[in-house]
Amino acid sequence: MNDDVDTVSDLGERGLIERIHARIGAPPPDEVWGGDDAAVVTHETASTLLTIDSLVDGVDFDLAYSTGADVGWKVMAANASDIAAMGGRPRHAVASLTLPPDTSLVVVDGVVDGMMAAAERWPVSLVGGDISGGGEIAVTIAMTGEAERDPVLRRGARAGDALCVTGCLGGSAGGLEALRRGLKGEAIGRLKHRHLRPQARVEEGVVLAGAGATSMIDVSDGLAVDVGNLMRASGMGCDIDPDAVPIDPDLDALAEVLDPRAAAILGGEDFELLFTIGESSIGSLIAGTGIAVTRIGTVTAGERTLGGAPLQRWEEMGWEHLRDR
Amino acid sequence: MNDDVDTVSDLGERGLIERIHARIGAPPPDEVWGGDDAAVVTHETASTLLTIDSLVDGVDFDLAYSTGADVGWKVMAANASDIAAMGGRPRHAVASLTLPPDTSLVVVDGVVDGMMAAAERWPVSLVGGDISGGGEIAVTIAMTGEAERDPVLRRGARAGDALCVTGCLGGSAGGLEALRRGLKGEAIGRLKHRHLRPQARVEEGVVLAGAGATSMIDVSDGLAVDVGNLMRASGMGCDIDPDAVPIDPDLDALAEVLDPRAAAILGGEDFELLFTIGESSIGSLIAGTGIAVTRIGTVTAGERTLGGAPLQRWEEMGWEHLRDR
């Protein structure tokens, strides 16, 4: 044995599994987490939400400016956000880690720490997983969730519904730009945090489902693209007012290098919830729930437009993971 | 648009998702598959089995001698095998594909075809997924399953139980060796098929759970390692008779390059089921169920041995994905 164990290949697969398993915690008596061929989990509702999301080194994150813990947090947040966008609460997660042999155990431990911190935040139980070798680090989470009432799908928007978004947008894109340029400052620090440690809007999603949201999606690929995805799924058009889009106020600190409005309309990974809701419900929703909600437009039976121009022109500027590398 | 669309980057993420979504098929009325933030699935039992497994190019497969369809089949089979090893039946799956921009659509379509063929075989419903960019192809499946009775865990083996395995072993390792060496022939073709298109022993697992198996695991890392995993989880020892280990008869065709017994004891990815069962049940199990079962040893309260030598010596020769690359 090597006294100076510090990479994945030093520890080996079984040692690594034991190291991670020790950090997962104990399951309730009627469940089995880790250490078996599959996890055994229980559920309380008649249907289960199921999603999967991967982050890949060099594409979705860069260890030059994010830690393993940032990566672990973010992949958990991205999955929790998918569950939130259905109006559900996360329940259980399994993780698959692809780790090159020379991966530092500092990074591996960080990924697990970040996943566990995020799991505690929402909360969700990490119940098992798998480790593979590979040439690049990749972290995949599959997550189950449960909705108390019918899940809010993408396809339910109706002409006349208000089109709304939670929180404010563009912060994550601003944070990424600041990280790439090595910028510093108080507002810039908050933007970086929004990129590295995004929040899934789970409580908001549950409230919006209860308030009668007719369709919902999380803003992961950028507002323009995700409005397009939501309206295409519903077979609807929309008019969006670009001046109504809520822009992250901290983007002012980056105004010399990044147009705040463009960042809010095109930037991805804010993980806010974009949803539609009947005109009659929108007033009490904004006034009565304590959730930051902004109306940005209206669902129509016509074309999809943003500021009078075809939405598609904006979508084509958006962030497609594969086309523009 | 390019008339000669043939790589992932030509099609883009949305085009790729639509292309795959079109092949998934329609869900029952109370479920939602694909095209939303998460899939909505139903379940029939009080608990759910949950597992995840990844295959990575250059580590777990090589496109020089396997097709995309082989890869898609195998990742589905590996997950179904984990569910089978709990005595469960696969229900729903989500897939995450990591695809470099220059990945041929022939490979992508093949992966989906292979997943769908395997999904039909067991059966399991592929209900959603996710696509990421990356530097190497990786395919991850997370799968849910359901067991009619209590899942069979790894930790239930008792001293005196018979230690048994389904089918015969070493075929997958032989097939890999034959593929690497470019060997040909009828028996060798069957070995290659066993490596490229493994079978998950779902029906067998259900029968074994019903017959009273006290612990169970699938043989994915090799018999020696997986016996060790099963006995460690149960806190038990064992005596294994190497002459009783069922060797794939087609390995005779490779005897000049690979010791058949070593392949059966050390080779991975046979996906047969290794299980323990009370002495009193073993006779009727072998006689009465029509499942090919071989007793290879006995669970003890002592050391773990194979042919009188410490099992650990064999395990250290086994196939650890990360240490020996």
Structure in a nutshell:
The first copy, chain A, has 325 residues and is α+β, with helices and mostly antiparallel strands.
Could you characterize what this model shows?
2 copies of one chain form a homodimer. Chain A is an alpha+beta fold and 325 residues long. The first copy, chain A, contains 10 helices and 12 strands. In chain A, the strands form 2 sheets. In chain A, strands 7-9-6-10-8-11-12 form a 7-stranded mixed β-sheet, with helices on both faces. In chain A, strands 2-5-3-4 form a 4-stranded mixed β-sheet. In chain A, helix 4 (171-181) crosses helix 5 (186-196). The longest helix of chain A has 17 residues, at 8-24. The first copy, chain A, is globular and about 60 Å long. The N and C termini of chain A lie far apart (42 Å). At the A-B interface, helix 1, strand 1, strand 2, helix 2 and strand 3 of A face helix 1, strand 1, strand 2, helix 2 and strand 3 of B.
Quick one: which chains have the greatest interface?
Answer: A-B, 74 and 74 residues
Q: Name the assembly state.
A: homodimer
Uncertain stretches of chain A? 320-325
Order of helices and strands of chain A: HEEHEHEEEHHHEHEHEHEEEH
Strand order of the largest sheet of chain A: 7-9-6-10-8-11-12
Please report the number of helical segments of chain A: 10
DSSP E strands of chain A, number: 12
* General shape of chain A: globular
The radius of gyration over CA of chain A amounts to: 21 Å
Structural class by helix and strand composition of chain A:
alpha+beta
- Helical content of chain A stands at 25-40%
Biggest beta sheet attributes of chain A: 7 strands, mixed
